[in-house]
Amino acid sequence: MIRNHFKISWRNLLAKKGFTLLNTLGLSTGVAAALLLFLVVRYELSFDKFHQNHERIYRVILREEYSGGNIDFTPGSALPVAAALKSDIPQFEKIVPVFGTLEPKVTVLGSDSAAIDAREKYIEKGEGLLVEPGFFDMFNFRWLSGRPEVLAKPNVVVLSRKFAEKYFKDYRQAVGKLLRIDNQTTMRVEGVLEDAPGNTGFPLNLVISYASKRAQPKLFGFGDFENWSSVSSSDQIFVQLPETLSAEKAGSLLEEFSRKHYEGRKAHYNRLHLLSPLADMHHDDRLAQFEGRTISRERIGNMTIIGVLILLMACVNFINIYSALATRRAKEVGVRKVLGSHKQQLVMQFMTETFMVVLAAVVLGAALARFALPLLEKNFELAIDPSFYATPATALYLAALVIMLTVLSGVYPALILSSFSPVDVFRKNLPKGWMRGGSFRQALIAFQFATAFVLAIGTIVNLLQTDYISRLDLGFEKEGVFTLNMDPEYRLQFQSFRNELLRIPEVKAVSFSSDHPSSGNNWGMSFSFSDHTRKEDFEASIKMADGDYFDTYGIRFVAGQSYDVRDTVTRFVVNETLLKKLGIQDPESVIGKELRLGRWEPAPIVGVVRDFHTSSAREATKPVLITISDHYYWNGGIKIRSQNLHRTVEQVRAIYERIFPEVAFVGNFYDENIDSYYKSEHQTGLLYRVFSCLAVFIACLGLLGLTAFTAEARTKEIGVRKVLGASVVSVMALLSKDFLKPVAFAIAIGWPVAWYIMNRWLEDYEHRIDIEWWMFTAAGLGAVAIALLTVCGQAIRAAVANPVKSLRNE
Predict the structure, then answer these.
(1) Which of 120, 210, 551, 607 has its CB surrounded by the most CB atoms within 10 Å?
(2) Residues near 287 by beta carbon (within 8 Å), at least 6 away in sequence
(3) Measured between alpha carbons, how far is residue 72 from residues 66, 76, 97, 521 in Å?
(4) 408 to each of 6, 38, 310, how far by Cα in Å?
(5) Alpha helices in 382-438 (DSSP H)
(6) pLDDT band at 23 (very low <50, low <70, confident <90, very high)
């Protein structure tokens, strides 16, 4: 019986090749999109879940509430916290401090430390994690050689297999070799790790013993192990709870711990340590991550919804076309029932046909997804291992798709077709709705185009917001500024480097600073203004920079002026937002007044600059305080005239390598850094564009199939109308109007949905566009135009056909 079902199904599918192809193509497109999104969502949700006890591992974060009402969160903890936790809360099973990332300058020494200048030099961005041996008891990363205990000693480094081969060609020869870190500390390689999987938030290519930080805390981060005030987001703590201790109880213990160590210590803010699950580390964009990339669960949810909608649209195509073909199958059903077939047998027959189409679509969709996966990884900066594709979970997902799509796509048409009465079939008393498109099919068309319309609006709003951000006045100049890494250990040579650069005709200005005007730096410090004994109720974002910083980046003064580039005595420049938060209206009134930063001695304010963006357009402008301190000049900025940029950069490189032979030259143009802040927007825009195109494509496939069927089913009616004098235009209008109604209805439904979704998305931005009526009008006209183009092809073909041929067999 089953074999017979498949044989009949195969013949029926071949008998209507065109509609079978449309169904298979539509379903396979939906399957490919859904499979790719499944892989991405599964990958993003899998971060650090391969650790044996991941559900009991938490990151200790810090909540700071200022007296002015502002609340900040940081993943960092003061350096004494880890030891205090071990002493005060013995209920925690494991406590591990981690520092990262160091982004070290690495010089490969090999077996000896001689001839440094001739060695290979690297600057490892996003690398350099300092951990204790206990880190590998908590987290399950595999060792190829060595063991965790080697990290108990200072000046020890462990490399990943990839980095060991990068430095020493063969990872088996790496142990015992020497590296110089930041041109200051020589470290011995004591182990090699297997390359960490892509779905971890810990960059483990270069791991340094935490004992090195304890021995020389000033070389690895900020603060010291007795200072409870200084907090860096790079100093993080992870704890593992025992099975008997709940997260709620652990949170209460941390609350008691915070009261014990912070009450009375600071008057202008309250500090509270909290627990954040390890599973949230990759998704909490409030907090800095070692890997530097986060994706919110809301965005993952949006991708899931889009995948489901694309699949449903593909199913709608099948239902629409299959139900439209009901009149062709009616006589077949009637004959089968007269010959004794039961309804269950007919349902099984039609479900078998659906299964065969779905199976072919899933196989084709899986092949398309495998082909598109490298493109997805490249554009979304993913590191999905190829084995991630060929897993039991993926196979189960595909099997579930086959079953789900067969049921969703096949049940309704099968029940309808098997329900026809033989008497009605042979008397031709079938409802006319099956000929001209019933309300249910029109509702399905409306669903398809509403989905495509919402995605189109998302594309328009995303593109306009991205364009708005790119044209936003940042308060500084980003074009023509070449940025490069500097090493403060060689600060005595900075002035010589500046003088050499200024001899290049195309170089206009040179400055050295802790970071650029807009960066990922969140270095904040408390300060006092009017009363040097009382801290203000908010922190200022701190930037250390020389006097040429303002000319290099085109930062404009509204009062006062810059300090001199040769100044070594502390001077302050503040921005307008800092004055507004102090309640000061007149910038000129603060010139000459003293300000005290942290534990520094009071120093005068010499200038007030116009507000500039210190981070992305998502965030409000921060109060900024700029001062002198060449110990923190990690970055250089070179303002270059537009003529022959490439040659000028090569001249800069030559001078840099001559003056700083120990340091690797790493640089790029600043506007590239700014663009990197908005990768999420670009990726979201790409997602909308791709899937809105897929949605339109699938909707048009369904509309094309229905139009072709309708035109074919009404061939004789069209022939009669033409004989009676109907024009080509009137025939086209006749065939088009039934399909344009659901499109118009889709636009009406999609309008408020799209407005709500995109308005919520824009709420994440401090600086954003307004959603205007013309965006919806443009998307609506586009939907109507696409629907018309899809319908008109078949309509014109039917309208210009010779009526004699269509009426000949009457």
Answers:
(1) 210
(2) 61, 73, 74, 75, 233, 276, 281
(3) 8, 12, 21, 15
(4) 20, 19, 13
(5) 392-418, 422-427, 433-436
(6) confident
pTM for the full model?
A: 0.83
From CA 475, how far away is CA 478, in angstroms rounded? 10
The pLDDT value given to residue 172: 92
pLDDT at 440 over 80: no
Beta bridge partners of residue 527, listed in sequence order: 597
Instruction: Summarize pLDDT for 559-572 with one digit per residue, the tens.
Output: 999 998 888 889 99
Judge contact between 400 and 366, C-beta under 8 A: no
Here the tokens at position 419 are 């329900």
Three-class secondary structure assignment of 710-770:
HHHHCHHHHHHHHHCCCCHHHHHHHHHHHHHHHHHHHHHHHHHHHHHHHHHHHCCCCCCCC
C-alpha 752/C-alpha 231 separation (Å) is 45
Q: Is the pLDDT of residue 209 over 90?
A: yes
Q: What is the pLDDT of residue 10?
A: 63
Q: Omega into 101 within 30° of 0, i.e. cis?
A: yes
- Closest-CA residue to 297 (of 275, 276, 282): 282
Read off the pLDDT band of 128 (50, 70, 90). Answer: very high
Averaged pLDDT, 88-103: 94
Closest CA to 368 of 716, 690, 725: 690
Which tokens belong to 456? Answer: 């189109």
3-state helix, strand, coil in the chain (%, to 5): 50, 15, 30
What is the phi-psi region of residue 437: left when phi exceeds 0, alpha when psi lies from -120 to 50, beta otherwise? left
Contact present, 303 and 41 (Cβ < 8 Å): yes
Scanning 487-584, the segments in alpha helix (DSSP H) are: 494-502, 549-553, 576-582
Compare 685 and 289 and report the one with higher pLDDT: 289
Which of the 8 DSSP states describes residue 229? S
